[in-house]
Amino acid sequence: MTTELEQQIAAAQEAVTKQGDTVRSLKASAKEGKAEKSEVDAAIQKLAELKLALESKQKEFEKVTGKVSSQSKEALRAALAGVLERRMFYIPSFKIYGSVAGFYDYGPPGCAIKQNMTQVWRNHFVLEENMLEVECPAVTPEVVLKASGHVDRFTDFMVTDAVTGECFRADHLLEGHLEALLEDKKNPVSPEKAKEIRDLLAGVGELKADTMGAALQAYDVRAPGTGNAISAPFAFNLMFKTSIGPKGDMVGYLRPETAQGIFVNFRDLLYYNGGKLPFAAAQIGNSYRNEISPRAGLLRVREFTQAEIEHFVNGDDKRHPKFPLVADLRPLLYSRELQMGEEKKAAPMSLGEAVSRGIIANETLAYFIGRTWLFFCKIGVNPARMRFRQHLQHEMAHYATDCWDGEVETTYGWVECVGLADRSAYDLKAHSGMSKIDLTAFEKFPEPRMEEVVKVVPNNKELGAAFKKDQKAVKEALEALDSNAALDVKAKLESAGVATIATCDGQQFEVKASMVEIKKVTEKVTGKTYTPSVIEPSFGIGRIMYCMFEHCYYTREGDETRAVMGFKPVVAPTKATVFPLVQKPALNDLAARLSRELTAAGLSNLIDTTGNTIGKRYARTDEIGVPFAVTVDFQSVEGDGSVTLRERDSMTQVRVPAGEVAGVIRDLVDDRTTWEAVSGKYPAQKASADDE
User: Fold this and answer.
1) What is the CATH number of domain 574-681?
2) Which pLDDT score, from 0 to 100, does residue 60 have?
3) How far apart, in Å, are the Cα atoms of 518 and each of 457, 511, 521?
4) What local confidence, expressed as pLDDT, does residue 61 receive?
5) Nearest 5°: CA angle at 177, between 176 and 179?
6) Domain boundaries 442-530, CATH class
7) Are strands 332-334 and 347-348 parallel, antiparallel or unpaired?
8) In the chain, at which end, N or C, are there fewer CB atoms within 10 A of the end residue's CB?
9) In this structure, how many other beta carbons lie within 10 angstroms of the beta carbon of residue 521?
């Protein structure tokens, strides 16, 4: 009975997930005019019904068994959170002062895992790809973030409690209120009102300040907890603002991402690299976002670690020389076609096929998708629960060529952990325009050749008469046009007599045909100057860590109280523990010597000389994910000099000569051997009743 109910719960959960994807694709179709609002409405109604069915099955399981279903996301999340906080993987910051939402402290095992993970990332990407690693300040002058668009556009809508001043994110508040109205069984809304609410829910994310305010007012949304009135919604910039220098006259911000530090250093990095493209630069560091309503632990915080790569490449040639190495990998791809199709499910596909069919825009983007997939497999994320979801057209920035999110399935649903985007030449052009510094590259041809080029010749006299003090800015904007943009302006001038030009600070001016000459000429050229395109993989380390925690957590069969963190050895916080079987000087001395040898081999280890049974000591270290345990017994000091080596997940043991154990564990951690190979080489040790 319970097994059947568990299967029904799993099926109900899958149906909810699939219907959620259906709602998202219908919203996208509605924006493009390809679906009616009534279709979106019906899909949302069906999603609500499926959620109720899932909840009903979970309650039925609890009634029959008296326990929470293993399929219950809340139960798993609560059990895992208990282990993570009790063993101090991470805890809320400033606890003795009541904590501050969105900030977490990593304890000893959390620090070790984070350090191990970032080092694996560095080895996997920076070293493997010969990337140029930089480290830039977190405090960033306003002009940098003005150029990138963060000052003007990095915002969410916020409302405040009219009495207490407490802040809330407007869209979350409205969504919560509307969902509560639909779920209210004591005071159900009419079918007509329910339809109106579902229609509004479908488009909450697209509301502007005025329409958001009207909706909050129409539904009398009030501040949670107090019931007080709320303010009108207003844009809230998510960056932490500060001042630079003792006078406080230079505005700065804590960086919202690490990428801008790489872009502003492009010219020097290009010079360092001998002027050669393509090349990639990388940075690992903390970023800061003043989230209005931080939640979901490490998944939405105000300070977090990013690892970002900016791969600079000629926009006309986005092939990658190492693409054949990943072309046969078959990660789960959730393309636009699959999202908009009937099944709503990611499917495995070779990266080579995805590029050849045009599903992934180019080899370089696909190469980094493949390398990202391999990285996640290396650190212990279940590849069957990871997918790469392609952005739908309406989700993409106007300048982007193609974007994919690396998503991992957790109890919170599919969590975006990595963004992989072909950002074209947008970033370098933006910073070049604002700084007036040339951020281009030069490609020298093997032989000079005759080419047709586009020449833009501003008429200074006409520009001066028309734009006065803005003449210089308009002239620079015209001269900065690339060939395609220049020809587009030329076509508009010929057809309409005027064309709109945007200057680096965002101002727009109308130029007339008499103000500029745009023509094609044939010239002998030795090379070409161009603004490189950027392929950007951006990793959220905290999010990846949490997803890995969920995927690695399990309990021993038959004993739900024995939690195990099944970390891969390469990221485990402690690689081995050393246990003297009993408290005897000879056993303690050998255990201490083995601990020193492990440390000398670069292996973090713990030595436990407490009087607890070996089984209890195993259980304690299993809970923090230690993959290997060395036990010193009487055979070690009075017999053949071997010690017991235990592997955490299988709980099997072998006897290894004491002098070899550090080398064996080092090889296991570095993936130079496997536990199966070690078990075949060394004699097995039967576990005693007290061992487990």
Assistant:
1) 3.40.50.800
2) 67
3) 6, 12, 10
4) 62
5) 65
6) alpha beta
7) antiparallel
8) N
9) 9
